[in-house]
Each structure stands twice: as structure tokens, then as C-alpha cells.
Hints:
Layout: H1 10-22, E1 33-37, E2 43-48, H2 79-86, E3 96-101, H3 105-114, E4 118-123, H4 130-142, E5 145-148, H5 160-163
Helix pairs in contact: 3-4
Amino acid sequence: xxxxxxxxxWDEYFMGIALLSSYRSKDPNTQVGACIVNEHNKIMSxxxxxxxxxxxxxxxxxDREGDPYDTKYPYVCHxxxxxxxxxxxxxxxGCRIYVALFPCNECAKxxxxxxxxxxxxxxxxxxxxxxxxxxxxxxxxxxxKLTKLTLNRDSIVIDFDEAKV
Length: 165
């Protein structure tokens, strides 16, 4: 008997973890997850976008428009920053981070400062915005590799009922 042929590649696995993590986000509009992995393919940390610990997601705003004070933007911690902060204190130097959405400029700073050396992403839908252009400028200057992931499959299905058998 031969081994299974349809197992996940490392990239599919880690991007799948990032996407699964995004399901923890309570943001009604945008859910993003992140997975940080070291050179030995060991997961160092995961994160998703949400409010900081102690800031109730029932009391802080989720709005996207209006007075900035009353929108989510000054309060939400992005998935990349959450993953960096959720790390147990181990060095992230040389790691790579998997995210569905290309990082903003604020997350780019944290990624660079933490020593992460590669960003693996699926979508760059904000590519032409000043913040994303600033991210790329910083990543290039800091020598961070940018990899747009192309996958050989469209989906990974997790079936809880099947696992019970």
C-alpha cells in the first residue's frame, strides 16, 4: 500500500491554520487570521483580528464609517500583531507569517521588528492604497520576502462528524 497522495502541503496547512483562526474574529465585515511558523515548520503562534484583552466586543464599536472615535479602526488589533503578541516569548527571528490579506503598514512595522523574514499571503486587494504601498516599501527595505501563495486546491473541508467515527 502506498501513502496517501492528497495530503496537505506545508503552505496549504499553514494558510489553512491562518484561515481557520480567522473564524474566531467577531468583526462583522472582515475576518483575518495569521499563523507564524519557524524554519522547522513548527507553529510559533496564531492570531486573528479583534479587540485587545479587556475591551469588550459588545461595548466597543464595529462601525466602519463616521467619527473615527466611534469606528473599529482605533481599537481593533490586526491578526498579524495579535499573532506576534500571542507568541510565548520565543524568538520569531527568521520565521514566516501566513495571512490571507497582505499586511497593513502598522503590522508591517511589527513584522519587521519581530524578525519575521517572509510574508506569505493570498490576497493583495488593497495593493494600490498608500498604506499597503508603505508596507511593501518597508518590507523591501528590510529584506522581508513577500510570497503570493498559489494553491493547488480551492478548499479544505473540516467535518466534525467524520472525525467522530
